[in-house]
Amino acid sequence: MKGRDRFDLFSCSFIGAFLMFCGDMLLYYDPNDFNYKAGDSTETRMNAIMEVIGKVSPKRLLAGGFIGPVAAFLYCVGFYHIIVISNENVKGVAIGCAICIL
Questions:
Q1: Sorting pLDDT into bands at 50, 70 and 90, what band is 7?
Q2: Higher-confidence position of 73 and 98
């Protein structure tokens, strides 16, 4: 695989990571801080997060939900460059694993 193709795969992972960040910000961002303290239980923390998500508008929820799978796909495609750089002989295994994950 040529250097340019490797760069394209590498950039896919960054685009996927950025889209994942944008989707998470659409879902979880709130200008107010979450309503829990450092020593609270996991259940209290999850309830605080669910309270924020409960206030999110439906458009924002759908946008964040649609961005997530696209970002995850690009993120996974971007990881293929690690296989390409490390060893050309394991392409079949890498493709098989990617198909199983997706």
A1: low
A2: 73
Half-sphere exposure of 38 (CA within 13 A, CB side): 0
Q: What is the DSSP string of 39-101?
A: T--HHHHHHHHHHHHHTS-HHHHHHHHHHHHHHHHHHHHHHHHHHHHH-GGGHHHHHHHHHHH
Residue 69 to residue 76: CA distance in whole angstroms: 11
Question: Could you tell me the pTM of the whole model?
Answer: 0.65
Q: Any idea which residue has 């998470």 for tokens?
A: 24
Q: Locate tokens 């079949």: which residue? A: 92
Helix pair 58-86, 91-101: axis angle to 10 deg: 160
